[in-house]
UniProtKB/TrEMBL annotation, chains A, B:
GO cellular component: cytosol
Pfam families with a match to the protein in the record: Guanylate_kin
A molecular function GO annotation: ATP binding
Cellular compartments annotated: Cytoplasm
Entry EC no(s): 2.7.4.8
Domain Guanylate kinase-like: 5-184
Gene3D superfamilies listed in its UniProt record: Guanylate Kinase phosphate binding domain, P-loop containing nucleotide triphosphate hydrolases
Binding site residues for ATP: G12, P13, S14, G15, V16, G17, K18, G19
Main location group: cytoplasm
Similarity annotation: Belongs to the guanylate kinase family.
Protein name: Guanylate kinase
Species annotation: Pseudolactococcus hodotermopsidis
HAMAP family in the record: Guanylate_kinase (MF_00328)
Function: Essential for recycling GMP and indirectly, cGMP.
Amino acid sequence: MPERGLLIVFSGPSGVGKGTVRAAIFESSQHQFEYSVSMTTRAQRPDEVDGKDYFFTTREDFEEKIKSGQMLEYAEYVGNYYGTPLEYVNQTLDQGKDVFLEIEVQGALQVKEKVPDGVFIFLTPPDLDELRERLSGRGTDSLDVINERMAKAREEIKLMSEYDYAVVNDEVSLAVARVKKIVEAEHFRVDRVISRYQTMLDVATQTVK
Amino acid sequence: MPERGLLIVFSGPSGVGKGTVRAAIFESSQHQFEYSVSMTTRAQRPDEVDGKDYFFTTREDFEEKIKSGQMLEYAEYVGNYYGTPLEYVNQTLDQGKDVFLEIEVQGALQVKEKVPDGVFIFLTPPDLDELRERLSGRGTDSLDVINERMAKAREEIKLMSEYDYAVVNDEVSLAVARVKKIVEAEHFRVDRVISRYQTMLDVATQTVK
């Protein structure tokens, strides 16, 4: 059986640019992650591909999956469910591949309860002014909506301490490089690799008896 | 005051090649470590420079430093003391620089008791046959001496689990790259960097009251 892969949980406040950084990681040539496709009950948009952008499903099916413990995490947002199907994640980890989850802060904390040895990375804005600019920059939302998002983002930033790592998104390429380094380094953590050396350790223990 | 540097404790069994990997790290152009020069009571060799290879001192002075708590770690080996003066390490960390200690396994465990938030990296041989070859390769020692070193190395390998990371020394350049990645990633650990974001978090807490 191959060594189990790492579950990488990549999160951060609304507007920080999680999706952009994640896309850049997956576009880069040497990434070795499997992207965990989320499931949602919201309507499929014309440019979206089922099974690539999301798994699109019904409320009934989603709620059934919640009840039967088939969701690693989920949240309801603006009347729709979003979540991570557990089966795909487990199968991929068992194949020795790292799974990359890009999810909201609340979902990440649900995952932490279930998979405490995941690698939890928080993407943070350089400062709140920059975050407000990014949230306003979309240009499509009213001041009230932006203020509401800022309030939510502030609450989310306070949860940074629950994560293992914090990476600042000052520049996408730099943030990408940081995330990759963190994952590479995590592969050398003793509790993850000690089984590789178990044979050597067993021999060592026997021989010195 | 600058953010405090990281204390990197690099260790591994006798013969694994700690010194070679450490030298390669310090020869590489982008390293950002300060090397902690050890203190010893053994005689200075003709090619060694005091204050560069070691701080050479007397047994009396060394024992006085142990008594007064001025050694971060020390060991006696073949009748001589070897250890790490605490003052230099603390001053360098306070300047925001990372300090790199290359020490024996027993010394590393002493440091772990005193500085639990250090980064403890264990350099391991690919397997014990390879280690024996390296220990024999020096060509200057009897079989008895080699067997004794192997027995000691086996005991040391069993202590791998006390470390944070394990890096295999299959090829020096690869081992160097792994160690550097680990240190870079450690700089993003939340408990180390959260103070950077404290201002943002304080503002966040105040504003949402």
